[in-house]
Amino acid sequence: MKEIDWANLSFGYMRTDYNVRCYYRDGKWGEVEVSSEETINLHMAATSLHYGQEAFEGLKAYRCKDGKIRIFRMEANAERLQSTCRGILMPELPTERFCEMVKKVVKLNERFIPPYESGASLYIRPLLIGTSAQVGVHPASEYLFVIFVTPVGPYFKGGFATNPYVIIREFDRAAPLGTGTFKVGGNYAASLRANKMAHDLGYSCEFYLDAKEKKYIDECGAANFFGIKNNTYITPLSTSILPSITNRSLMQLAEDMGLKVERRPVPEEELATFEEAGACGTAAVISPIERIDDLENKRSYVIAKDGKPGPISTRLYQQLRAIQYGDVPDPYGWVTVLD
Predict the structure, then answer these.
(1) Are strands 28-29 and 59-63 parallel, antiparallel or unpaired?
(2) Bridge-partner residues for 25, per DSSP?
(3) Nearest to 59 by CA among 163, 155, 149
(4) How large is the C-alpha radius of gyration of the chain?
(5) pTM exceeding 0.90
């Protein structure tokens, strides 16, 4: 294996040694298989290609100071995948099988887990796709569940630093009562044009308002939003937002730090009142928000007045990372320590 520059990894794909697979046929899941092949042999009429019967997850494993490997909240990812399966009529993979496969693929690729304090981690990508041929719009009868891993660096180049966002009204990521609460590729395909527009304008990411009324905060690109004011952690409540496992974790930490936690509709004008704000998700954990520009209405909501992450966001970030890396006790049972 060539020497990897762990400190300068991008958030991209690097080939690793193995992936693990499991097929659903004849109404049941088969045995777990190990593969070193990067490609999938897929029928041209597979429902995943034509009717979007595909779902994925994202989680991470960390090499820790004590030399052990920790995986963060894989049971929660299994549950979210099951929710997506119910939403688009795919067979649910049992939590036990999901966790078995996650642990197996991490152990098989242990040499690709970045060193402690390198700023990098092992990204784990579970993928479930409909594989049987189907021309009519119906669920598939056969499915493939595969998990691969790749070492990654920070999602944003600056790491834990403030970033500018821009409100994009021309496009919606997901509609109320649509597939926004499920982790399916179509939601991300719907975000590509808005994301490119934001980048072309010099922003880190796009900022979505609700699709129905364009009045309420929805998501920050592919991440959940949170704002902090008056010792309160506030995050939007919506039927088109993906339930972020990172956001759930931050809400728990905020509550235990003595903050009040509110999940409710958040009108755009409230952005002017936040003392701190951030985007949160598996990839970046927290990306603090410097400002959110509303170019259409010629407004700019400057949140980080000094351009730096706020004290509460910093504390939340450090505490969550400390739990992920085993630097502090995990009172919640969030991490799985590999033998």
Answers:
(1) unpaired
(2) 28
(3) 149
(4) 20
(5) yes
